[in-house]
Amino acid sequence: MIPAPFDYVRADSAEAAWAALGEHGDDAKLLAGGQSLLPLMKLRLATPAVVVDVSRVGDLAYVREDGDTLAIGALTRHCDVARSADVQSHAPLLAHAAGGVGDAQVRHRGTIGGSVAHADPSADMPAALLALGASYVVRGPGGSREIAAADFATGFLETVLAPDELLVEVRVPKATGEAWGYEKFTRRAIDWATVAVAVQARDGATAISLANMGSTVLRAAATETALAGGSSAGDAAEHADDGTEPPSDVTASSDYRRHLARVLTRRALAAAGRA
To answer: Which of 48, 146, 181, 210 has its CA 20 to 30 A from that of 240?
Structure first.
């Protein structure tokens, strides 16, 4: 498929990106790695009048420690997140998830900020970041604000980002030495997750997030509550799909996704030492 006609603007700085977004508003889409946006454009599911390319804004690609937090620039590629010694040491769940995104070509082009801002509920990065309790720094002409991962996505491919705002940084609380698990089911290794489950122990509790079990990535709240109340991992995992609304599509039925959520949650909890 060929995308609908569009104008192209290359932004060499965050300021240039904000100016372009302010000028074109809802008619503009940001292009980082292009691994999410371009397929939608080719299928005519997204038809922006203007594409603002921010891939050359070099000061938004970094991983650094900031006290008890890892600060990751929005344009940091998945491959660099996966290989970062800081991420491997302080947020190994995120490093593992990044290393399983698509294939090598996707990981060398796609960015963590692009995945988050795209807000696909089947994506690896938003699921891992939700379990880690991450937050996202967004910036626009009116200044900066920090948004919890749980509050960022509002629906399928929808977020709280204003038309003239740019996601600039992902902030991840360190989980050094904490147990974690990540399980994903796909038809092919390079596919989006049919269902994925991320488990992260932190502050004496266990956070569990689900991919592709609703219009956004979700917390498995019923399972978390059951674990906190003393239930075994196996019993708690049976509630993983409670309160979810998984879709039915050519990949899997809603009922099959519910089954996968329970099975994968049990496996992820076992990987995190909660068997």
So the answer is: 146
Contact at 8 Å (CB) between 97 and 182? yes
Fold topology of 7-53 = 3.30.43
CATH 1.10.10.10 fits 182-271, yes or no: no
Q: What is the per-residue pLDDT across 137-170, written as a single tens digit (0 to 9) for each?
A: 999 888 999 999 999 999 999 999 998 899 999 9
Compute CA 34 distance to the chain's CA centroid, rounded to the nearest angstrom. Answer: 15
3-state secondary structure of 24: helix
Domain boundaries, the chain: 7-53, 58-173, 182-271
Q: CA 33, CA 193: separation in Å to the nearest integer?
A: 19
| CA distance readout (Å), 26 to 17, 133, 215 | 14, 29, 21
pTM: 0.94
CATH code 3.30.465.10 for 58-173: yes
